[in-house]
Each structure stands twice: as C-alpha cells, then as structure tokens.
Specification:
- This protein is an alpha/beta fold and about 300 residues long.
- The protein folds into 2 domains: about 100 residues, Rossmann fold (3-Layer(aba) Sandwich), CATH 3.40.50.720; about 180 residues, Rossmann fold.
- The protein is about 30% helix and about 20% strand.
- It has 9 helices and 12 strands.
- The strands form 2 sheets. The protein has a 7-stranded parallel beta sheet with strand order 8-7-6-9-10-11-12. It has a 5-stranded parallel beta sheet with strand order 2-1-3-4-5, covered by helices on one side.
- β3, α2 and β4 form a beta-alpha-beta unit.
- About 35% of the residues are buried.
- It binds NADPH dihydro-nicotinamide-adenine-dinucleotide phosphate (NDP) and oxalic acid.
C-alpha cells in the first residue's frame, strides 16, 4: 500500500524507517516525493498539498498528523472522502500533563506568586485544598476525559461539559447550551479542550466569562479562534477573571505587539500543550492502516456534519 506523508520531515523519515521494518508492505512517500500519484491510497498530512484529489485520484482517506482536523477545509474535500484525526497515547498524555500543570499552577496561586517574586514581595496567601476548587472541563472527548481522570485523582471538584450527554466517574457532567450556564457557574478554573467548529468559534467571550464565578481562571488549550482576545483582556483587567493560561492563539504565531505577551495575569505558551509523539503515533497509524485494509472504520474518523 502506498501512503503520502506531508508534515515535519524528521518525523517522516523516522516513520518511513519504522514502517519499512514493521510493515514492509506499506510504503511511505515523503512529500514532495510521491511515487506514482495514481497509487497513493492514503495521505497523512498537517496541511494537504494543493489540488489533493486531482493529483491523487485514487485517494481513499485523508489523515491528520494532529489531534485536530480543523486545518482542513472540509467543504472543499469530496464529501465521501473519510477524514481521520490522530488519536494516540503520547498526544493524550502530553495534554494530561499540560492541563494538570496549568490547573495546579492556578490552584496554588503561581501567577500571583510570580508577580510577587518580581516585586521581591514575601506574602503568603491561604492554601486551599483541591477538594474546594471547582474545575470545569469543556470537551469530554479523548483529551478532556483523560485530563479529568488525572484531576479527579488529585482531588479536585470536577465537572465537564459536552455536546451530548456523557457519564464519567467522579465528574458532574453537563451538556448542551441549556446546561452551559449551570456548568460555568461552578467552574473556578475553566479548561477548554473543545475542537474548533462553527459552534465553538468565539465561544470564550464576554458573555461566557460573565457566567463564571468572579475571580475564576481560564486554561485555553483548544484552538485560538475559540477565544475573543479583547474580551479576555477586559475580563482580566476588570477582575472577573484572575488568571489565564493560553496555549493557542489567533493568529499563530502571536505578533510581538499583542498584549497577551506582557499581561501579568497571562501565561502564554506557543501551542505546545501536546504534540504527536513519533513512536506511539506511528504504531497508532499502523493500527489504523490495518483497519482500513480490513474494511473497518478507522479510529478518529471525523463526522463531517458535526465538524469534529
Ligand atoms: P474529541 O473529538 O475526542 O472531543 C471533543 C469534545 O468536545 C467532545 O466531548 C464533544 O462533545 C465536545 N464538543 C464539540 N463541540 C461541542 C459543542 N458545540 N458544545 C459542547 N461540547 C462540544 O477531541 P479531542 O479531545 O481529541 O481534542 C479536542 C481538541 O483539543 C482538538 O480538536 C484540538 O482543537 C485541541 N488540541 C490542542 C492541542 C494543543 O497542543 N493545544 C493538542 C491536541 C488537541 P460530544 O462528547 O458530545 O461529542
Ligand atoms: C494537534 C495540535 O491537533 O497540535 O495535534 O494542536
């Protein structure tokens, strides 16, 4: 089977070598080398090449090297072309670590202590047990569920919000627009792990912040276009929010003049909350390719109507 790869070339070379060893029937072509374009059945990419389906007329599926597929213009792809995102344990674990770091950092007042350190100010604030801190996770998919398992194990008072009803051990679950207000009202720390869709674009805005308890904090690790930057700055400056940990922005990279870089209540990271891990991801890729060969649905199939 012939596969096209177009993303980080170093990862491509490693995957090519690994597949040659573990699945010699599968040949990975590293863009711009394609072999015979007619023979390419699967493309695994971050950004697809232009004229994808014209160039590779026998393409049977488009796979994302990342957890999201919002970088694809789904409307421009043939409606029956399966689109698949990456689900792999290394990527999931990376997000668990990031969310745990951010929630613990906020819980233990680190944004305030870092500001105090810069001012050489020795001042203690009372330490609250995790059980009294209400954490709310938006998005109860692969990443939200894994992050919540860790947060529950640390003793936080956890809730989650999704589009359709979910049941998770130790988590108060909310769903849909009707239950969003109740979910937000009990979220001292709000974590966004939503995919970018028409419904979630711009969702983290003034109206939403106003429904959080005063002095709440935001952890944004979904997608930049979900957050209204001006509304976040106003909520921080007005005291409705106390702190924000922001990993994804719009645009990326963020221009040097953007106020997020210098805001004392913002911790900013350059879209590194999690990354596809070469070794675990290539094993997950192979498993999905075998599923495809057996005629089974691949893991991480995007529902084109839902947009994620
Ligand atoms: P999943 O598709 O597994 O889960 C998505 C979750 O979001 C589901 O629970 C879904 O609800 C919920 N959801 C979607 N739309 C809505 C809506 N309109 N209202 C309420 N809930 C909604 O995705 P993953 O957990 O794998 O990944 C989530 C996102 O994390 C990715 O799409 C990507 O944007 C981001 N990400 C960021 C990274 C980073 O480094 N910053 C790295 C990796 C991913 P339901 O359960 O009802 O379907
Ligand atoms: C991803 C990401 O989707 O890096 O994997 O955000």
């Amino acid at each position: 089977m012939q596969i096209l790869y177009k993303s980080d070339p170093q990862r491509g070379a490693l995957w090519q070598q690994w597949l040659a060893q573990h699945a010699p029937d599968i040949q990975l072509h590293l863009w711009p080398e394609t072999g015979d374009p007619q023979a390419i059945e699967i493309a695994i990419v971050w950004q697809p090449p232009e004229k994808l389906t014209e160039t590779f007329p026998n393409l049977k599926a488009l796979l994302s090297v990342g957890a999201g597929a919002d970088q694809f213009d789904l409307a421009a792809l043939p409606p029956d072309l399966p689109v698949v995102r990456m689900i792999e344990p290394g990527l999931t674990q990376g997000m668990v670590e990031y969310v745990t770091f951010a929630v613990l950092g906020i819980h233990r007042d680190m944004p305030r202590y870092l500001q105090q350190q810069r001012a050489a100010q020795w001042q203690a604030h009372s330490v609250r047990p995790a059980a009294t801190r209400r954490v709310g996770v938006m998005g109860l998919g692969e990443l939200g569920q894994a992050a919540l398992r860790q947060l529950v194990s640390l003793g936080f008072d956890c809730a989650g919000w999704s589009r359709t009803p979910r049941q998770l051990d130790g988590v108060q679950c909310f769903h849909g627009a009707a239950q969003m207000g109740a979910f937000l009202a009990r979220s001292d720390i709000l974590v966004c792990l939503l995919p970018l869709t028409a419904e979630t674009r711009g969702l983290l805005n003034r109206d939403l912040f106003a429904q959080l308890p005063p002095g709440a904090a935001l952890v944004q690790a979904g997608r930049g276009a979900q957050l209204n930057s001006q509304d976040l700055l106003a909520a921080l400056d007005g005291g409705q929010l106390a702190a924000a940990v922001i990993d994804v922005t719009d645009p990326e990279p963020l221009p040097p003049s953007h106020p997020f870089w210098r805001h004392p209540a913002i911790w900013l990271t350059p879209h590194i909350a999690s990354q596809t891990q070469n070794e675990s991801a290539v094993a997950a890729l192979l498993e999905n390719l075998r599923r495809y060969q057996r005629g089974e649905p691949m893991v991480g199939l995007i529902d084109r109507a839902r947009g994620y």
